[in-house]
Amino acid sequence: YERYAGPTSAQTPHLTWSISKSLLATVFGVAYGEKLFGLQDPAAKYYPPLSRHPGLTLADLFHWASGLDWQEDYEYAPLNSSVVAMLYTRGRHDMAAFTAQHESASPPGQAFRYSSGDSNLLAVALKTIVGPARYPDYPWTALF
Fold it and tell me: What region holds the Beta-lactamase-related domain (predicted)?
């Protein structure tokens, strides 16, 4: 059963927000099955701006344990929110670069910190992992 209100229909695009993190992880699962990367690979191998964070691996990004000084706050501290700045102000033109420029708060792999920034770094790494020619269609070809 489906029901749509107002101008919304089955064809209306929707922002998926954090559900896209699950889709990204699933797409990465396919790429991992294709042996395109290793979990312990340095993140900078796939996104060179991360070379300023030595020791950061793809596994750390998957675990939201990059160690980057990131604040995922929205309504409680919007002026200090890394994610609000990434989405709407300083980082909106290049979210991965914005995230990579953050200082480290802890060593990679040591502390869990929910981070849309880490997910954006994984998304840009995927482009290198699968190659720019495959990247635009890869989620669809990988999953469907």
Answer: 1-136
